[in-house]
Design goal:
The protein is built from twelve helices and ten strands. A hairpin with a 7-residue loop joins strand 1 and strand 2. The longest helix is centred in the N-terminal third of the chain and has 25 residues. By secondary structure, the protein is an alpha+beta fold.
């Protein structure tokens, strides 16, 4: 449609130009003729003296403003009236469900016991808080014991970012003074509350979580001391070199299995082994980073765990000492970690204990064969 209309207009314009050219040739002139469009003016509207009509607007209805415990609705009979109905909450649909109280709304006893429970996996924080509360209990008049500076190295090392540590101090009536201080005023010292806090921390010390974390902390300290011996003891350096001499050569190129051993939180060692290398070779390699480590592993003071398995359990290194890496599930890669041995493992091995999970290694032996 639009194309045909445009074509018609073009044809009319061409006809007009041809007519104008013919008229110009009859008059004997070749001057071009410009056609102008004539515009017709519309008659002006007469102004009337009648007043302008005003638009009628509907009366505004006030919007409902619900309160915290009610829901506002507009009545159909009277739109200007707002009816309030009770708020529909959890208690109507689930009358037997009770929301737990906030921590700050609980009693002092509940706060102290909750904080002590959260502190169990942090032995350094438990020991620090135990000493602090005991000092205040024995000498409440000493202002030095009742002020804690959060900028000190001791606070940052043992209490900072530990869940439940500062909350326990606040439950003991400590008050925050600025951004970096906690102060217990002499008038706020409560001997009964101190006794409760000390008793809760003593209970945390008896938990398995505390004991395991305490053993791991001592283990990390001993590992750090062993690693520093190579820099100060010539005899230790010689023994480490003897262990490294017993290791097979490392495969080159893309061959071999990548072994990773986590010795401590700060130290992870890596190298490649062939699939037919045995666990004894790995222990010799570990001995190159600490000559006493293989002895502690074989005596079960420490243990080796495969962190690619779940559940995690100590590996019987004495039983599998001459088994290949493929047999123990460390092919084409393996991830081992050195840990302090649990008490049950030291006494009876894996008898009656949870066996470690199945291996993800290729052609690995059944889990039962490794215990």
């Amino acid at each position: 449609h639009y194309r045909s209309a445009a074509g018609n207009r073009a044809a009319q314009a061409a006809a007009q130009r041809a007519a104008a050219a013919a008229a110009a040739s009859n008059n004997g002139t070749n001057a071009p003729v410009h056609l102008k469009k004539t515009q017709t003016k519309k008659p002006a509207k007469q102004r009337s003296n009648k007043p302008a009509a005003t638009k009628k607007t509907a009366p505004s209805v006030p919007q409902p403003t619900p309160s915290d415990n009610t829901t506002a609705t507009i009545s159909h009979e009277n739109p200007t009236k707002v009816a309030k109905t009770p708020h529909v909450g959890v208690s109507r649909h689930h009358p037997n469900v009770k929301l737990p109280a906030k921590f700050q709304d609980k009693s002092k006893e509940e706060q102290v016991l909750r904080c002590a429970d959260r502190l169990k996996p942090y032995p350094l924080a438990v020991d620090t808080l135990y000493r602090a509360l005991t000092a205040i209990q024995q000498d409440p008049s000493n202002a030095k014991f009742r002020k804690i500076d959060k900028t000190t190295r001791g606070y940052k090392r043992s209490l900072e970012s530990v869940p439940g540590a500062e909350a326990l101090l606040l439950a003991m009536n400590f008050q925050t003074h600025g951004a970096y201080s906690l102060v217990l005023e002499r008038s706020w010292v409560d001997q009964a509350l101190l006794y409760l806090g000390i008793s809760a921390l003593e209970g945390a010390k008896e938990s398995e979580e505390y004991k395991e974390a305490k053993a791991k902390l001592a283990f990390q300290q001993e590992i750090a001391e062993i690693q520093q011996l190579s820099n100060t003891s010539e005899a230790e350096a010689i023994r480490r070199a003897e262990f490294m001499a017993k290791c097979p050569s490392e495969p080159t190129g893309g061959r071999g299995a990548l072994m990773q051993v986590v010795i401590s939180d700060e130290t992870t060692i890596r190298r490649k082994f062939d699939g037919d290398d045995v666990l004894r070779d790995v222990l010799n390699w570990i001995g190159g980073h600490g000559s006493v480590i293989p002895e502690k592993i074989l005596s079960r003071e420490w243990c080796v765990v495969d962190i690619n398995r779940f559940p995690i359990a100590p590996m019987d290194c004495e039983l599998n000492l001459d088994k290949t890496l493929q047999y123990i599930g460390c092919w084409p890669s393996g991830r081992l970690e050195l840990r302090p041995s649990p008490q049950a493992w030291k006494k009876d091995g894996n008898k009656g204990q949870v066996l470690m999970g199945s291996s993800r290694g290729l052609a690995a032996a059944p889990t039962e064969a490794m215990h």
